[in-house]
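During the no-cost extension, the postdoctoral fellow (Dr. R.K.) reprocessed legacy sequence entries with the updated structure-token encoder. One reprocessed record is reproduced below for audit purposes.
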Amino acid sequence: MSILCCVPVLECVYCLGCAHWVWKKCLYTAGHESEKWGLATSDEFEPVPRLCRLILAVYEEDLHNPMWAPPGGYGINPNQVILKKDDDQTQGCVTPYMIYLDHENGDVVLAIRGLNLAKESDYAVLLDNKLGQTKFDGGYVHNGLLKAAMWVFEEENEVLRKLLEANPSYSLTFVGHSLGAGVASLLVLFVVQNRDRLGNIERKRIRCFAIAPPRCMSLQLAVTYADVINSVVLQDDFLPRTTTALEDVFKSIVCLPCVLCLTCLKDTFTFEEKKLKDTRRLYAPGRLYHIVERKPLRLGRYPPVVRTAVPVDGRFEQIVLSCNATADHAIIWIERESQRAFDLMLEEDQVMQIPVEQKIVRQKSIVEDHDDEYRAAIMKAAALHIPISPSPSYGTFHDSEEGESSAASTSVWSFKGMRRKWNRFIDGQFPVDEDSEHMIFRKEESSALLCS
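Re-encoded structure tokens follow.
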């Protein structure tokens, strides 16, 4: 019709939409998501490479005689493996997993391996989901992954309870890769809601590390459980960015041009606010750790940098068109690059020469910064009027001084609490005289500085 009228309006709109989609997809790099995030520290990132090796150990048939050990070995004691179940024992309900009692780190670990390309049951778990099919704790979760997580909990809750009762100071850690990461994330949600079945374990002793996870929970749950769940993503990994239903991905092989056309129009004319307000939309869970090791338009790998945040918007929304999109999903590469990143963090700590007695203070400051990010993320979710969003007081946060929560909601999101700490330092070192309303520098502080 538009061609007959000599005004190709529809064709121009379609061309502009395609050009916008090409710009977003072809020129978009993985560093855009985390370029404004803060840098992770060695203290909080230390468990990641160790837990990655533990996931790799699940693939071994005999841990006393390993065949696929990474350089340096798995770093575990085979005698401390409590149980290990393969595909026959799991009956196709979940991928193989292992329970390991880590005495060296004071931890009870349940590690779940990723999807097996030769197992139809794994595909059945991953594809068992429809948009908005399953509700959980006021949000939406992946149906197939939730059923797998509930199966693991019913099978192993007695074993975990006995281990925690025998080791009351140990933490409980769930870790998984790919499909196993989604199961571990939803397993933590179920454990937190049923802590009485594990001997009333405190929430602060429960944690989860989801390595290259699928999008398995709604935005409210992803932010609310950010104090328990940690997701690790390597550069261009495709799975945490796969927003469409997975069955549509398999259908695209049959009619790829049609799916590309629909995806073009959908991504071009869908606003970010509309995506955030869709309560059924699933996201990568918890706090995000993004390992960046490549730069756009440059060849080779660079020293990896780990950035972390609890984002509300921009939570891996776009698929990166990269030749490494599938390679970055492999647990072998994630273990290797996470170990490199952790070694670089340790080198920087040694250069800075942080005293040993100040490590406890540093760890407390990391916890405070993370709590401030939780508050800021929840406040931002409430400010965006996201349906079923948690209230600003929701969650288990550490106690803070009066007036800090309001400051954290405005400034912590961008400066990670630095303004709050600076104001606290100024108030401590330069008290204000009530009579003259002028700052006073403490004499004892000045003499201490001169002596040093």
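Residues 249-254, 389-416, 443-452 have pLDDT under 50 and may be disordered. The chain has 17 helices and 13 strands. The remaining legacy entries will be reprocessed before the final report is submitted.
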